[in-house]
UniProtKB/TrEMBL annotation, chains A, B, C, D, E, F:
Enzyme Commission code(s) on record: 4.2.1.83
InterPro entries to which the protein is assigned, alphabetical: GlcNAc_PI_deacetylase-related, LmbE-like_dom_sf
Name of the gene encoding the protein in the UniProt record: galB_4
Name of protein: 4-oxalmesaconate hydratase
SUPFAM superfamilies in UniProt: LmbE-like (SSF102588)
Enzyme superclass (EC): lyase
Matching Pfam families: PIG-L
Keywords, in A-Z order: Lyase
GO MF annotations, alphabetized: 4-oxalmesaconate hydratase activity; hydrolase activity, acting on carbon-nitrogen (but not peptide) bonds, in linear amides
Transmembrane segments: none
Length: 243, 243, 243, 243, 243, 243
C-alpha cells in the first residue's frame, strides 16, 4: 500500500532524479504517497555540457537555467513544493561532516519509509559514488539514539534503493526491484523533456524505460507492463509475503 | 495478498523443505494459499546418517522411517494431502531428461505463482545443486509454447526463490527475501522435531530462525518480527511498489 | 584489419545470431571477412511462441517457417551461402559427445580467427549455457595435437566472444568489446524484421543497438558512433597496442 | 603454537571485540599469548541505544557505563591490564592522519604476530569500514623503513584477520578461519553479559557461537567442537603445512 | 604436524600433480606423511602436443612415454609405489557414475586427511573442471553412512585444496594457502625435468615457484622462504589457532 | 596505429611505472608515440627499504638517489625529457582537491589518448588505491565543460588501463590487455636494473614478463611472443573490430 508512505529522493545533480526515478515518483504521488526531493547540486560543472557549449554562459546563468528546468520537471511530476536545493559544488562533490549532519537532520525530519538515491558504484560519475556512501551512512546514523541532531527523534531503519547508473554492467549494478511505470510514463516523458542541457539523454532514458518494461514483463509474466524503472536493493526485502 | 496463491516447493531430500521453509509454508497455508510439496528423494543415502548409525537398517527400513517422519511434519504444517514422493536415488541424484519432462508436467499441472527450491550453489551438497538447475530449467521450459508436455497448457513465468543452504557464505548465498514466520514458528518447531534421523539439525535451524528474525528486524525496523526464514531471489522483484 | 579474417558464429537457435550479432556480421563481410554461421537448432520448441500461438502448427511447419525466416535474414547479411543447420532439438538441448566431436571438426575445417557464440551464463535460457560450454570446450580441444578429428589439422587458439544475453545484469554479463555497427545498422534492422515468430524482439534489439551506441560513444569519446553491438571477451586482448 | 604469540585486537567501539572475538581472546590467553586490546571509541553515539532509551543520560554518563562494562568484560577475559581507550567520537568516526600515525606507533610498540580487527565491509556500520581500512593501511606502513614513527623499529608483515560483521552475507563476509572456542565459551558468555547497553545482542552472539561450532564441526570432521568464532583472512595462509 | 598424515592427490592428466604440487608432495613425504597419487589419465590427447608433433606416434606409444616420464618423476618425489593410473580418455574426460563410485571407494580406502586436486575452474582446461567437480562430490559422498561402497567404512570430512591453474586470474583462482617448498625445491625441479612432452612448462613452473616464494615471503614476513606452491582452499581453515 | 598517439603514465612512486609498464612505454616510443610520465612521489617512505637499511640516510639523500635512479631508467626508455616529479609525500599519500585540480590540468595539457595508472585495488599498497581513484576521477572531470581548469580545453574520454599489482589474485586484478614487449624487453631489463633500492624486484618482474609472455602466447596462438606486460581495462574496448 503506497498511500501514506513517505519517500525521500536524494539526487546528486539537478536532473538525476528525473532520468532514473521520475516514473516511480509520479506513480507514488498518484497513489497517495508523500514525496520529497533533495537536489544536492545543480550539476553546473559536470552535467551541463550542452549549456556550456552554447557559449556566453556563467556559473550563475547555467545554475539559473538548470534550476528552472528541474522545477518545471518537478511540477510535472507533482513535487514542485517538495523539492529543495542544497547548491553544493559538483565534480567533485566534497561531502563534509556538516553535510552528513544536515542529511541526518533531513532524514529525521522527513522520516521516510523509503529512500531512493544513487547506487553504490557508478564507473562514470565519482559524485554519485560519494553521495551513495553519504546517504547510506546517514540512514544508519539517523537510527542511533546517541546522535542528537537538533531536537530530532531517532528513526527506525528505512528501506534504501539505488538508481540505475548510466552504464550498468560495468558499474556492478544488480537489478533488485522493477517498478511498473506504465501509468506514469507520459509524465516521465514530459519531465525529461524539460532538460535541454542534457538533450541527448532524453531518447536514452525513453528507450531504457521500454527495455526495462520488457525485462519486467518477461520475469513477472505480467503482460500489461509496458514501461518500467529499475532499482538496486541496498537490503533484502522483509515482509509477510514473497513478492 | 497470499490468499489464493499457489506455491510449489521442490525438495531434494525428504526433510529439506522443513528445515528451510516450514515456517513460510505454514504461514502461507494459514493465509489461504494452496501449497504443494514435491520430495524428489527420501535422502536415504546422503541424509540419514543418524539412522544408519543405529545399525540393523536396510534401504527399505530407512525409507519407511523417513517417509513417516516427513508425513508427520507435513501434517503439522497442513500439507499432508499435498505432498508427493518421486523416490529418486540420492547422492548423487541423476536427473535424467525424463525427470525434467516430469517436472515440466508438474509445473504445468500446479501452475504455481511461486516456486521455492534449492538455491544455485550449496558447497556441501551436490544434489542440491543439480535440483536447483533442474527446477530452474523446467520453470523456463514450462513457459514455452513449443513444448507439449501431455495435454498441458503453457504457463507464464512464475517467481523462483532459493532455500538458504547449510553454510551460506561459502555457498555464495545472498539473502533476497526475509519472511516473518513469527506466527507459524511453533508449527515449524513441531515439524522439525519429527526428524530423528537428523536430530542435530533441530537446534541448528531453531537458532537460525532466531538469528534471521534479528536480521529481518534490524533491516526492516519492524520490532515485532521474532523469527524469520530467508530466501534467495532468482529474479528481481517486479511490482507496483518498492517492498 | 578485418579483410581476410575468418569468423565463425555459433547460434543455439535460428535467430540468436541475428539479434545479437547481425551488425557485426554484416560489418565484417563488408570489410572483406569470411563469415560462417552454424545454427544448432531451429528453436521450434523454445523460441517460436508467436508461431505456436497462431494454432494449426506442427513441428515441421514451424521448422519450415523458422528456416525460411533465418535464410532470408542470412541473405540480407550476406551469409546465405555460409549458413548451416544442425537441426538439434532445443529446450533442453542435449549436447552429446558426438556433437562435441562434430564441432571440433567444424572448427578445424573453418579455422576461424574469431568465434562468436553465447556467453557463459544466460539466466533465462539454459540452452545458451550448454552451447557456450560446448563451443568453449571444443575451441580448446581443437588446439590439441592428440585429437585426430578425421584428417584435420590442429588449430592455434582462436579468439572467443560472447553474445549479450537478453537480461544482462542478472546474467553476470560484462561488456568486453563494443563494435561500432553504424555502417551496417540498416542491414541488421532488415534482417531482424524477417522474424515474425519473435516479433516483440525487433523493437527490443533496435533500442538496444541505440543504447549500446550511446555507451560506446561515451567511453570512447568517438562522436560518430550511432549504433553498437556489445560482446563479452572470453580471454584478455593480446596485441601490440592498447585498444 | 600460541604460547608467546602477540595478538593485537582493534575494536571500533567498546564492545565489538567481545561479541566477535572474546572466545578467541580468552583461548589465546589461556594458551600463553600476550593480548592487547585497543578500543577506538566507547560507541556512545552509535552503539548505546538501550542506554539512551532509559533517559536521563549525558554523553559522560553513557561513556562511564560503557567503560565500566567493557572493563568488566576485559577482566573476565583476562585482558584488564592490556586494554586501552582512545576515546574517539563514533558515528561517523573521523580517522585523521594523526590517528593513522598513532596506530603505526602502537603496532610498532606491540609488534603483534596477529592483528584482529573489523573486516573490509559491514553494510550496517560505516565506522567498521573506516577502522578496517585504517588498521590495514597502518599494518602496511608499519613495515616500511622510511616511516620513522618516533624511535620505533620497523616491523615485518603480521597476519590480519577480520571480525564477522552482524549480517554476514550482505556484507560480503567470507569465512576464512574458524577458531574452536569450546574451552573458552563460558568466559565469552560471561563477558557478553556485561553489556546491558546492547542486551539484545547477547542471545544473538550466543546462538552464533553454536552455529559456527556446527559449521566448524561439519567441515573439519572434528566432533569435539561445540562452539566457534569465525574470521575473514586478509591474506592467504603461509606455512609449512596445509591447515 | 605432518608426520602420519595421509594425503591423496588426484591429477586429471599424468603431469598435473608435478607442475602444481610436486614441492608439497616431496615436503610432505620428507616430513613423514603418506602420500597417494591417482592419475586419472595419461593426457595423451590433450597434453602431449610436443610428442605428437615429433610424428610417428600412436596412442599406445604416447601413453608409454607419458607413463615412463611420470613414474620417473614419482620416483624422484618418493611416491613411485603410491601412484596409480586409471587410464581414462582425456579431452573431454567423461566421468561416469562408475568413476564416481570408484573414487568414493578410493577415498574410503585411503582415508586421507587432505585431498589435493584441481580447483573449481580452469578457463583453459575443461577436464580440470570436471575432475574438480567429481572429487569434491565424492569427498562429500564418502562421508555419508547411507552409501555402502563395497565393505568400506564411512569417512569424516577431509580437507580439500585446489591446484593453481595455468592462468590464475581469468580462472578466478584465489590463493588460500602457500606452502614453503624451499626444502623440496630441487626435487620438484628434477621431477619437472622428466616431462619432455611439455618441455615449455618447465621454465614456466620454475619461475612460478620463485614468484610464489616472493608472495609468501611478503605476506608472512618470513625472509627464509625462497620457493612456494599456492593452493585454493575449498573450505575455511578450522583449528585452535589463527595460522 | 601507435604513431602519433599520446600516452600519459601516472606513477604513485618513482619506480612503479618501470616495473609495470617499462616495456609498453619503450614499445610505444619505438613506434612513434608521445609518452609523458608523472611520478607523484619518490616513494622515500614506503618503497625505499633497501636504501634505509644501509643506514646513514636522510629523506633528502634517499630522494636524491631515487630521483637519479628513475631518471636513468627514463633515459633508457626514451622518456628522460618527458618525466615530471610532483614530490608528494608517500605512505599515506594525501591527495587533496588541489592535487585533483592539478591532475585535471595536466590531462587537459597532455590530451592523452591513453592513460596508464594503478589499477583499482592493490591489497599491499594503499597509495596505489588512492592514486587510482584520483586519476580515474580526474579523467572524468577533464571531459566536463563546466570545469574550467585554467585556460584549458575540455577533453573527450580517453582510455584508461591499470598496472598489474604485486599480488594480483588477492587484489582482484583481472587481465584485460596483454602487450607484446618482446621488442622492448631488453630496455625494460636495463631500466629495472637502475633501481638498487628495490633490488629484490628485478628478478621478480623479469620472471613476470616471461610468465605473461607465456600467457599471451597461449591465449593468442601467436608463437612469437616471448615477453609481455599485462594491464586491466577500466572500460570495455570500443572499435571497428574484435581484437
Amino acid at each position: 500500500m503506497i498511500a501514506g508512505k513517505k519517500l525521500l529522493v536524494v539526487s546528486a545533480h539537478a536532473a538525476d532524479y528525473v532520468w532514473r526515478s521520475a516514473g516511480t515518483i509520479a506513480h507514488y504521488i498518484k497513489c497517495g504517497a508523500d514525496v520529497q526531493i533533495v537536489c544536492l547540486s545543480f550539476g553546473i560543472r559536470g552535467e551541463s555540457n550542452d549549456l556550456w557549449k552554447k557559449g556566453g554562459q556563467t556559473e550563475e546563468s547555467v545554475k539559473a537555467i538548470r534550476k528552472a528546468e528541474t522545477l518545471k520537471a518537478a511540477e510535472i511530476l507533482g513535487v514542485k513544493n517538495n523539492i529543495e536545493f542544497w547548491d553544493l559544488e559538483d565534480y567533485c562533490m566534497n561531502l563534509t561532516p556538516e553535510i552528513y549532519d544536515r542529511m541526518v537532520l533531513k532524514i529525521r525530519e522527513i522520516r521516510p519509509d523509503i529512500i531512493i538515491t544513487h547506487d553504490k558504484f557508478d564507473i562514470l560519475n565519482p559524485d554519485h559514488n560519494h553521495v551513495s556512501e553519504m546517504v547510506y551512512s546517514c540512514s544508519i546514523m539517523s537510527n542511533s539514539s546517541g546522535i542528537s541532531a537538533g531536537n530530532t527523534k531517532v528513526t527506525k531503519q528505512m528501506k534504501l534503493f539505488g538508481f540505475e547508473p548510466h552504464q550498468t554492467e560495468i558499474s556492478n549494478f544488480k537489478p533488485g526491484s522493477y517498478i511498473d511505470i506504465t501509468d506514469s510514463y507520459e509524465q516521465k516523458l514530459a519531465a525529461m523533456q524539460c532538460f535541454q542541457a542534457q538533450n541527448h539523454l532524453i531518447k536514452y532514458y525513453t528507450d531504457r524505460a521500454f527495455l526495462r518494461g520488457n525485462h519486467a514483463r518477461r520475469i513477472s509474466g505480467n503482460p500489461d507492463i509496458k514501461y518500467a524503472e529499475c532499482f538496486a536493493n541496498f537490503f533484502p526485502i522483509v515482509g509477510n509475503e514473497l513478492y
